[in-house]
Design goal:
Radius of gyration: 23 Å
Shape: elongated
Largest sheet: 6 strands, mixed
CATH class of the largest domain: Alpha Beta
Order of helices and strands: HEHEEHEHEHEHHHEEEEEEHHEEEEEEE
CATH superfamily of the largest domain: Creatinase/methionine aminopeptidase superfamily
Number of domains: 2
Strand content: 15-25%
Helix content: 25-40%
Strand order of the largest sheet: 4-3-2-1-5-6
Number of strands: 19
CATH architecture of the largest domain: Alpha-Beta Complex
CATH topology of the largest domain: Creatine Amidinohydrolase
Length: 355
């Protein structure tokens, strides 16, 4: 079933006669075609993909299940949307309240002169469960990231800066076919590894330090996400103990993952390991988040998540311990949740690597 058909079924259950997709990635989800601007308008029995002259030729070749309409300087996107709604007698329009700016909301409400219905959750809920083709895109992106990691493990050496390693990771992903980054690459070393979302700097890699790399790329819009922490030269007893605790927690999180598990229970399985080792106060974020067209989707594996994880979702499993001013360790895989457990989509080694 096409994604537009899925959206139409969801609209029917919500009693919604029209939905305007404003968000760029939700337009991609519906149409299979990415544009920096445009709109998708979906009615119960038909759909429209509206774009401009920059994309029209490609859109007419690639967009399925929707009529492609070109907007111009005289026939603007808002004019086309208004005409579609008027021709079909639409009096209420579902809008993506989580993506639409207040300014655009006021502008479009003034032009269309109809009631807006908050409808962000229609596409968000559908995106939670991935079809196999979506999982395959995530896997392809992950394999590219793993090739980059393989190369960088031979590239890393003392004296390089965090920025230099970051640039090499990103170059290798692009060189191997990535269409873009899934998010801003994190590469930090030494005391900077105690910052879960540290920003790469001119800090130099030194023997005896950890290096944490958190990165991913996109294929057909779908993201990968992986973190590996490696050591340079040697590790102290404390560094090894923290690494092994994080790895044990990560494996516990994976064992707990299956369709129907409550997000906070999956988180607890990993968190208990870290707390029992005496590091509970140094694991401040949730165990994982769903991944798809967005790098952060729902549902999550976190202490606040009371919903079950459905079969088909892809969720990260990324416990960490962060000792301020000293060092930190995070290990992250992506898990495809199934009714029987979880398929680990990440194939990179996660034993302690000392370069």
């Amino acid at each position: 079933m096409s994604n537009i058909k899925k959206i139409q079924q969801a609209m029917l259950s919500e009693g919604l006669d029209a939905l305007w997709l404003y968000d760029e990635l939700d337009r991609l989800y519906a149409s299979g075609f990415l544009t920096s601007d445009g709109a998708v308008v979906i009615l119960p029995e038909k759909a429209y993909f509206i774009t401009d002259s920059r994309y029209i030729e490609a859109a007419r070749l690639e967009v399925r299940d929707a009529e492609v309409i070109m907007c111009t300087n005289t026939d603007r996107e808002s004019d086309i949307i208004k005409r579609i709604l008027n021709e079909n007698g639409i009096t209420e329009l579902g809008v993506q309240d989580g993506s639409l700016s207040y300014r655009e909301y006021l502008r479009m409400q003034g032009i269309l002169d109809i009631s807006f219905v908050p409808s962000q959750n229609i596409t968000a809920a559908l995106r939670e469960i991935k079809e196999r083709c979506e999982v395959d895109n995530i896997v392809r992106a992950q394999r590219i990231a793993e090739k980059a990691l393989d190369f960088v493990l031979g590239f890393i050496k003392p004296g390089l800066t965090e920025r230099e390693v970051t640039a090499e990771i990103e170059y290798q992903m692009t060189r191997n076919g990535a269409e873009g980054l899934a998010f801003e690459t994190i590469c930090v070393t030494g005391a900077n590894t105690s910052r879960p979302h540290g920003v790469p700097s001119d800090n130099k890699l030194k023997s005896g330090d950890f290096v944490t790399m958190d990165f991913g790329c996109k294929i057909n819009g779908y993201c990968s996400d992986m973190t590996r922490t490696v050591a340079l030269g040697s590790v102290t007893g404390e560094m090894r103990r923290v690494y092994e605790t994080v790895l044990e927690a990560q494996l516990a999180g994976e064992r707990a993952a299956h369709a129907g598990v409550i997000g906070r229970d999956m988180d607890k399985a990993a968190r208990d390991i870290i707390e029992n080792a005496g590091y509970g106060e140094y694991f401040g974020h949730g165990l994982g988040h769903s991944v798809g067209l967005y790098i952060h989707e729902s549902p999550n594996a976190s202490p606040r998540e009371g919903r079950p994880l459905p079969a088909g979702t892809v969720v990260t499993n990324e416990p960490g311990i962060y000792l301020p001013g000293k060092f930190g360790v995070r290990i992250e895989d992506m898990l495809h949740i199934t009714k029987d457990g979880a398929e680990n989509l990440t194939k990179a080694p996660k034993n302690l690597i000392i370069l």
